[in-house]
Design brief:
This protein is of the alpha/beta class and 388 residues long. It has two domains: 239 residues, Type I PLP-dependent aspartate aminotransferase-like (Major domain) (Aspartate Aminotransferase, domain 2), CATH 3.40.640; 130 residues, Aspartate Aminotransferase, domain 1, CATH 3.90.1150.10. Helix content is 38%, strand content 13%. The chain has a seven-stranded mixed beta sheet with strand order 1-9-8-5-4-2-3, sandwiched between helices. A three-stranded antiparallel beta sheet has the order 7-6-11, with no helix packed on it. The chain has a three-stranded antiparallel beta sheet with strand order 10-12-13, with no helix packed on it. Helix 6 links the parallel strand 4 and strand 5. Helix 3 packs parallel to helix 4.
Amino acid sequence: MSVRTEFLPYALPLIEEDDIAAVVDSLKSNWITKGPKTIEFEKRFAEYVGAKYAVAVNSCTAALHLSLVAAGLGLGDEVITTPLTFAASANVVIHTGATPVFADIDPATLNIDVAQIEEKITPRTKAIIPVHIAGHPCRMDEIMAIARKHNLFVLEDAAHAVYTRYKGTLIGTIGDATAFSFYATKNLVTGEGGMVTTDDAALADKIRILSSHGMSRNAWNRYTAAGSWYYEILYPGYKDNMTDVQAALGLTQLAKLERMQSLREDIAARYNEAFERMPELEIPVVEDYARPAWHLYIVKLNLEMLKIDRAQFIEELKAENIGTSVHFIPVHLHPYYRETYGYKRGDFPHSEAAFDRIISLPLYPKMSAQDTADVIAAVGRVIGRNRK
């Protein structure tokens, strides 16, 4: 099989005619900011995951931040999370005035190591943010048991985990709150966007108010015939709300999520079958309690069996017209975290060892069978040229 003639990006959204029509309909409705489509999207998403409440916002970062603020996190508090995540998981802790504290990962799943969470708890610990990396769920029963023992708030970072199931239960109802992402590369896209789900009415209400400048409830409808010009600022809030244009796209995406997930699972299965025969690779681990969302397909290179490192492997795949990414550069290795908290190489050895050898391969429902075959063939050729 020859090298592809066109570059295959590592991620693309699946936007179809119904998505386009829904956005156009929203634009023609003359209500393009937060309004009836946003409210409907919240309702349907809550029903989908089985949560009592859902609040739509403009990003998963906002969902995480607002949840922490609404839960009362502040100066002097500590929040435990993983270093192997996108920086937003830790940045939002700093935005509240609290301090992020890292627990290393389980090398198999790349999720936070539950055993290390309890070791990191101090009298200042107020919350845990488990991150469901690549859409594989964390060990939530154990995390919730630790949280209840120490009276800690659990905020699930489910940026990768729309559709993920833990012991048969959809992610979105296990922690005290769950934050989802609808960014352009995610399993369900609105361009930019996010959602908080929770069963806590007071928490949902405060998040909703905080997301729109801290204005009194239902202030969004003050420009309608049923609304009023009068509003009150209850908190010094933020401008984090979702728009109806985004929500219109979210509604059509949600309606076909199961179909898109089936396509993801098919690609992952083809990858697994092919890559299991390549000892130079380790395929993603799926624990028996998990049904992952397959947001990412992360392989681990057995570098001791190759003549090249991860960076060179990526460059050779790029020469084969196959796009890749790396998820993630450990947070503690970024300059801000090194300079502010004194972190260095060696502090979280499992996260660092994983980072040095992980690659995210293309996996998304827009991929054709030929695209999938091209990725498999290209990986095989790179390995064949560089096998020790």
